[in-house]
Amino acid sequence: MNDQQFRQLLNRYEFSWAGYRKVRKGVKKRIHRYMKSIECNTMADFLTELDRNNDVRDHCERLMTVSISRFFRDRALWQGLKERILPEFMDVGRKKVRFWSAGCACGEEVYSFKIIWDCMSNTYLHVPELEVLATDINPVHLDRARFALYPPSSLKEVTKVIQSGYFKQKGGKKLFEVKASLKKGITWKNHHLLSDPPGSDFDIIFLRNNVLTYYEERLKKRAFRNVLKSLAPCGILVLGSHEKIPFETTDLTGVEPYPYVFRKIESRSDCIT
Predict the structure, then answer these.
(1) Strands 129-136 vs 186-190: parallel, antiparallel or unpaired
(2) Can you tell me whether residue 197 is helix, strand or coil?
(3) For the chain, what is the mean pLDDT?
(4) Which domains does the chain have, with CATH numbers?
(5) Is residue 273 very low, low, confident or very high in pLDDT (cuts 50, 70, 90)?
(6) Reading across the β-sheet that carries 129-136, which strands appear in turn?
């Protein structure tokens, strides 16, 4: 499959060439194998099959999802969460904090957040219950997240202290499993970000390195609106470090000094800034 053919496929889904350009090699290999398995020998045949068969279209879209992640990716974000953003949620009057990882891939982001939250229990007398929803379009990624087994490359940002406290090595297989307590309290759910939101009034939403990277503008805006209406007033929205909001909005204000962290506001006087 050459790049011109791959662009035809991207156009069919309204996916972004700029987003896929650096990761296209692996995606193209997966799609090519799938085309052979359903006896589509040309891109023209495959595009026709996508148009007439929803199962093929859905499966192809799942194959085009990209999972490039590791624990504590973008270290400055996690440091900022621990030191400046999450402390405001340690209010003694707050019983629960609702967190949504939108496009959770294989779970590294979710478990990283839970580790940070657990670490804060050593600093604050009152740490609210954490309710976690983790969603992804790809059920294979969700299965991997549930098993929570990761190669050493996924832990290269993990300190020795965190590794010894929250991971255990699995025999001689050179895999690391997160400890059982981190797996509790997580709801894993198959969800497409272009469909209706899976909930509302989330206090914290991570929308990192998925729709805003891989979708064209029309779909970016549609998905982003779905996410935004799920965010509670004064809630925190975290994007990828190189991503931007796809349209102007007065519903969000930046959280300095992080250009990718935002707070939802309904009235400035109601929110901490």
Answers:
(1) parallel
(2) coil
(3) 93
(4) 3-63 (no CATH), 75-270 (3.40.50.150)
(5) very low
(6) 186-190, 129-136, 96-102, 202-207, 231-239, 258-264, 252-255
